[in-house]
Specification:
The structure is a single chain. By secondary structure, this protein is α+β, with helices and mostly antiparallel strands. It has a single domain (6-131), classed as TT1751-like domain (TATA-Binding Protein). The protein is built from five helices and five strands. It has a five-stranded antiparallel sheet with strand order 1-5-4-3-2. A hairpin with a 5-residue loop joins strand 4 (80-86) and strand 5 (92-97). The mean pLDDT is 96.
Length: 132
């Protein structure tokens, strides 16, 4: 399978609880939630079925600005986002873009390396808290 830049972590709890835990982990780190997109609610408003599927966009200017200072095109992948969804088997997942993939996609250099490493560690810790 080609590198699609996604990191997916299966949750031990339902999608709703995974989402609640994600939001709590973000709040504990004082990260700003910029937007939430509830795709299932949108589908329902159009009379279409969709299992729980929600995107949370979050971050901090301290984290992402270094990437955009290096290459402004990185702004298309920022702020960071996480997708919480329930698959056809009823399992909940948390998926996010791998910061290393973002760096590769935009040709980021050494100036962004520390920020990319910090984002990678942050997202892994948040995913662990949300899914365990």
């Amino acid at each position: 399978m080609p590198n699609d830049g996604l990191v997916s972590v299966q949750s031990r709890v339902a999608a709703k609880e995974t989402l609640d835990r994600l939001l709590a982990a973000l709040a504990a780190r004082k990260l700003t939630v910029f937007a939430r997109v509830d795709h299932a609610a949108g589908a329902a408003s159009a009379g279409l079925p969709l299992r729980p599927t929600e995107v949370v966009m979050f971050g901090s200017p301290r984290g992402g600005t270094a990437l955009m200072q290096d290459r402004q095109s990185a702004g298309i992948d920022l702020p960071l986002k996480a997708l919480v969804f329930e698959d056809a088997d009823g399992k909940a997942w948390l998926t996010y873009n791998d910061p290393a993939w973002i760096a590769e996609r935009h040709g980021l250099g050494a100036a962004s390396a520390a920020a990319v490493k910090a984002m990678t560690e942050l997202l892994a810790a948040i995913a662990q808290e949300a899914t365990q």
